[in-house]
């Protein structure tokens, strides 16, 4: 009886070790790494490295698009939006930072800061 219990404990520990190792591999980089920032603020919405359509909320957002030719709409709120490499279309927000590429920035009405490339 003791052998069976010891064998089950070894199998259980091995299963737990494999599960934890797999969990570490399956977690996205953002879950274990630093949160991207835009104009010094931590991102609340983060795109991928590809072509994205990113929509903000009605409140204030900090959007980091990363690379790719992205279409970003901050919607309402006092948004800070950073494009990345690629030709981005960025609409809405208080601060729009285009990044590398031929970007189109549209801050709308009001006081905005727009920085191309």
Task: Give a written overview of the molecule.
The chain is α/β, with parallel strands linked by helices. It folds into two domains: 27 residues; 79 residues, no CATH class. It contains two helices and eleven strands, in the order H-H-E-E-E-E-E-E-E-E-E-E-E. The chain has a five-stranded parallel β-sheet with strand order 3-5-7-9-11, with no helix packed on it. A four-stranded parallel β-sheet has the order 4-6-8-10, with no helix packed on it. The N and C termini lie far apart (71 Å).
Query: How much strand?
Result: 25-35%
Helix % is 10-25%
Oligomerization? single chain
Reported for the largest beta sheet, the result is:
5 strands, parallel
How many structurally independent domains?
2
The largest sheet has its strands arranged as 3-5-7-9-11
Distance between the termini: 71 Å
Q: What's the total count of β strands?
A: 11
Give the helix/strand layout.
Blueprint (H helix, E strand, L loop, with lengths): L1 H25 L2 H4 L4 E2 L2 E2 L2 E2 L6 E3 L6 E3 L6 E3 L6 E3 L6 E3 L3 E3 L6 E3 L6 E3 L2
Parallel strand pairs: 3-5, 4-6, 5-7, 6-8, 7-9, 8-10, 9-11
Antiparallel strand pairs: 1-2
